[in-house]
Amino acid sequence: MAQLRRGHEELVLGLLRKHGPLSRGELGKLCQLSRTTLYDILAGLVAGGAVVTSSPQDAPRGRGRPAETLTLNPEAGQAIGIDFARRAVHVAAVNLAHEIVGSASEPHDADLPWLQRVDLAERLVGSLNDGGLRLGALSAIGAGVVGPVGWREPEDDLEAPEPEDDLESDEPAHPVQSLLRERFGAPVLLDNNTRLAALGEAIWGAAAGDRDVLYLRLSHGVGGGLVVGGALHRGAYGLSGEFGHITVDPDGAPCDCGGAGCLETVASIRAVLDAYRAAGGRADDVPELVKAIRAGDGTALTLLKDVGGAIGGVLAAVCNAIGPSAIVVGGELAETGPALIEPVERALRARVMPVSRHRVSLRRATLGEAAGALGGIALVLHESPLLSRSPAGPDLAPDLLEETKQRQP
Ligand SMILES: [Zn+2]
To answer: What is the pTM of this model?
Structure first.
């Protein structure tokens, strides 16, 4: 019954999202629910703060009261995305109209305990929408964490228990899952944060509108994610998108994964900076390396040409395997710009099968550090059984995409 009610709520919210303010009579015609059911659902949504009522100010004079209209409450949150990165927490939220109401970030020490990271997330979420964000019964959280995360398919069972129970197993996939559930009182979906960044870029970012996307992140680690046919690909053990551990030199340096000569051993931030210093360059971090490149430093440019070649080779191999229409490169090292991206593109075009050579497009990521948190929101809107099973259907993504496109300058 709870599932059915959720379905009716989503149906009504979907109509208000699509048509804007509506009277009860108009809603009744559009939703085809019985008058009793509709009024009951509306009473619940108004009481929960998801929907607000208003009377027209300049109602024409006539018989009877002017019709009261119902609209989505712009302050009611529907999905919150939280990215627990290694050294920072990033959050973002969308309201019931699926408009992004804000995002926020704060760095922290790498060894900060989970309890304090959740405190920080709560404070950041509290700061969104000028502190006016209300979390209602229809809110859910999509959170990203570092490392592999297993994924349980929602059971395809209409007689399922309460959605809260349905979304989570008895044993949470990660300690942060139960902490978040207690703190926010909302269902929590969890995934790897780099994979969520891939989903974010595929929906709102550099590859918005593409259904087959390869996302590569060049940061302290090298990883990525695959969006295949519009859905995040997780793999059988929640371990897909580990492009950083594809071998580029069998005789290369040992890697943290236990292998040798993985892409990460040549294309991580540390690997690139170490190689630069070993070749006589001087840079302690990526911004200093970027400065050297802008100054035309030959050592840096030669190094990035080699690193780009290795990256492009791996991308070509993965491209041949999955056939993406877009490749998105993000992470701090992408800040080095054309000095890295051009050699990547050259190696990619040279090694990918000729048929895809001019079809696949290589782009820089556009969402920056908010990508993971936005991916968490996308996870909730796309994959929450709470939404995808409702009669209103998961027709949320196209709306979102349009809205985001319109919002972009
Ligand atoms: Zn490795």
So the answer is: 0.78
